[in-house]
Amino acid sequence: MTSLPAPPADSPCSCSATASADPRFVAWCPECRSNVDPTAGTHTATDARLGRSARRQEAQRAADRAVVERLYAEVSGEAGPRPRRDWAWFTAMTVAGAVHLTTVVLATGSVWLLVTGTFLIRFLGVVGLATAVLLRPRVGRLRRDEWSLNRTEAPHLYGIADRVAAELGVQPIELIRATPEFNASYGKIGLRQRSVLTLGLALWEVLTPQERIALLGHEFGHALNGDTRRGLWLHSASEALTSWYEFTQPDRTSTTGSDLFTMFGHAAAKLLLIIPHKLTGLILLLLHRCTLRTGQRAEYLADDLAARVASSAATRSMLEALVLDESVKHLFQRQTTIH
User: Fold this and answer.
1) Structural domain includes residue 115
2) Which helix (H) or strand (E) covers residue 47, if one does?
3) What DSSP assignment string belongs to 144-161?
4) CB neighbours of 332 closer than 8 A, spacing ≥ 6?
């Protein structure tokens, strides 16, 4: 049986301390930190650029964390959930107004062309009116589907939802939908702003009874937390902008024919659509930026209302359960495959 070789003796460092000389590792001095990074000074310009990029990203993340923590502190010190009226709010409302005004001008101008124009002008009016109808703001419509539950089918669920809504001072829910997703949402649909609660059964099943109360409190809290993104004015404008963005998206399919006219037509269409497509994307980004903090503030207030009707512990465990989305999906898929 051969014995292992004895480790070499440690060698002295230039600072008179003892530096490790183990051949399995890089020799470095624990006192003066000499040779801790043996590749120091050999980094390329690409490494330096990557390092600067990483530092900028880390600085941006730190700035975002600071903003979120400051926002949480502000929300925690507020007496009640009231909407904010800052520059971001005014900008978002102005952008939404411009979107609605564009639709009105397009529809009105098209009708005027239809009434007063010649045959060719009337054709342009028909095209403009069809475009206005196609890209109009979507306010939604309350439609019952296969996931919808009425009060006769789920009396206990509606009863619990009504009790939570009454505790928060919210109008009773008009429709509950039970979907297979691991999620939940609350919204208002149509010009009458009828309330709809969507409960994902995958999420509902993993929650305890008290956590379910916290979930209902969180969702109903969105009716009180001043989240302007869920209002008719901003939500319909955002939906209209999304329709504009999809409608103006240039065709990415390449032509396989040899017809020069067809190829020229595709190129001209892409050229005409690329500018409004990019412009709409920038407006959507601006609207998202202006409502980002409002949305975060609304989520904090919804969590506070959930803790009020349930408890802090139930709300915390409910929020922790939300991060199990992928794990629950994999579990359900595995059980479905087995059975």
Assistant:
1) no
2) helix 45-77
3) --TTEE-TTT-HHHHHHH
4) 202
Mean pLDDT, all residues of the chain: 77
C-alpha torsion 55→59→65→68, nearest 10: -150
pLDDT-derived band at 254, boundaries 50, 70, 90: very low
pTM: 0.65
pLDDT digits (tens, 9 = 90+) for 20-63: 566 666 676 766 666 666 555 555 555 556 667 777 777 777 77
219 within domain boundaries: yes
**SS3 at position 311:** coil
- φ, ψ of residue 191 to 5 degrees: the values are -65, -30
Rounded-to-integer distance, Cα 95 and Cα 104, Å: 14
- Domains in the chain: how many in total? 1
Closest CA to 154 of 182, 177, 180, 171: 177
Whether the predicted pLDDT of 217 surpasses 80 = yes
Edge to edge, what strands does the sheet with 194-200 contain? 148-149, 175-179, 194-200, 184-189
Q: Which one-letter amino acid corresponds to residue 204?
A: W
Amino acid, single-letter form, for residue 1: M
Residue 176, both tokens: 């509950």
- Radius of gyration over alpha carbons of the chain, in Å? 30
- 328 domain-assigned: yes
Q: Is residue 21 part of a domain?
A: no
